[in-house]
Amino acid sequence: MSAPSRTRAPRRVLWTLLVLLIALFAGIGATAKFGSGQWSPKLGLDLEGGTQMVLEPVLADPNAAVSAGQLEKARDIIAQRVDSNGVAEAEITTQSGRNIVISIPGQPDAKTLDQIRKPSQLRFRAVLVASSGVPQSAATTTSSPTGSASPTSQSPVTSAPIFTMDPVATAPVTSGAPATSANAPIPPALTGADPTPTPGATTTSASTTTASPTTAQPANPSDLAWVTPELAKEFTDLNCSTAGAINDFVDDPAKPLVTCATTKAEKYILGPVELDGTDIADATSGYQTGQNGQPTSVVEVRLSFTGDGTAKFGAVTTRLFGLKADQTRNRFAVVLDKQVITAPSTNAVISNGQASITGSFTIDSARALAQQLKFGALPMSFKLQTQDDISPTLGKEQLALGLLAGLIGLLLVVAYSLVQYRLLGLVTVASLVVAAVTTYGVLTLLGWSHNVRLTMAGVTGVIVAIGVTADSFIVYFERIRDEVREGRPLVTAVDAGWSRAKRTILAADAVNLLAAIVLYVLAASNVRGFAFTLGVTTLIDLAVVFLFTHPLVAILAHTKFFGGGHPWSGLDPERLGAKTPQTRYAGRGRFVTPTLTSEGKA
Question: What is the pTM assigned to this prediction?
Answer without folding.
Answer: 0.59
